[in-house]
Design a protein that fits this description.
By secondary structure, this protein is mostly beta strands. 10% of the residues lie in helices and 44% in strands.
Amino acid sequence: MKYLPLLLLFLAVSCVQPTANQKVRYVVIVPKAMQVSQLSVRGSNQPLSWEQDTPLKKLNDSTFYADVVHVTGYTYTEYKFVADGQFERQNQDNRKLTFEADLSTTVQHKFNGK
C-alpha cells in the first residue's frame, strides 16, 4: 500500500503523449478569375481553430501562404481554407495533413481543389 502513490505517479507520467513543434507552411493557389479580399485557414489543432481565421499572406496575385507551428502530440491535423468567410470544399471532407517526421511540412493546394 505504501507504493501506491509511486505507482499512480508513474502511470500518470507514462501516459502523457510527447509533443513536438510541427512547422507547417500552408499554401493555396486561387484561380485568377476569383476575387478574394481575405484568405485564411482554419483547422483542428491549435493554433488553428474552426471558429477563428488564421490569415494567409499574399505571395503573388494568385498564391497565398501562412506559416504555422502546431505544438501537438498528434500525428496529423485537419484543415480547410476560407475565402471571405466562406469555407472551401463545402459538403466534402476536411483536408488532412500527416505531419512529417522532420517536423517541417509544406502543403500546397488549389482553392476548392483536391
